[in-house]
């Protein structure tokens, strides 16, 4: 579910900068535990590609969330 408050700002994707996990808020499940991510660790964006690019700029190893983005999840 999209969240309009900061730091989500109504965007579809978020990157957890602490873990490198990317979430699709349109497909969020309770197992994603979005509420447990510290606000300072959230980078919100409009596309998956933007999250990937930001992670690479920061040197973060990224991975899709196994619950909301299984097609991008690597073990």
Notable characteristics:
alpha+beta
Helix amount: 10-25%
Radius of gyration: 11 Å
Mean pLDDT: 96
Q: Can you summarize the main beta sheet? A: 4 strands, mixed
Q: What strand order characterises the main sheet?
A: 3-1-2-4
**Unreliable stretches:** none
By DSSP, the count of extended strands is 4
* Structural class determined from secondary elements: alpha+beta
Overview of this protein structure:
The chain starts with 12 loop residues before the first strand and ends in an 11-residue tail after the last strand. The mean pLDDT is 96. It is of the alpha+beta class. A 4-stranded mixed beta sheet has the order 3-1-2-4, with helices on one face. The chain contains 1 helix and 4 strands, in the order βββαβ. Strand 1 and strand 2 (21-24) form a beta hairpin.
């Amino acid at each position: 579910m999209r969240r309009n408050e900061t730091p989500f700002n109504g965007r579809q994707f978020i990157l957890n900068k602490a873990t490198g996990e990317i979430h699709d808020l349109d497909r969020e499940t309770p197992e994603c535990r979005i509420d447990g991510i510290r606000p300072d660790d959230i980078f919100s964006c409009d596309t998956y590609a933007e999250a990937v690019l930001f992670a690479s700029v920061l040197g973060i190893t990224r991975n899709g969330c196994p619950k909301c983005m299984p097609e991008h999840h690597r073990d």
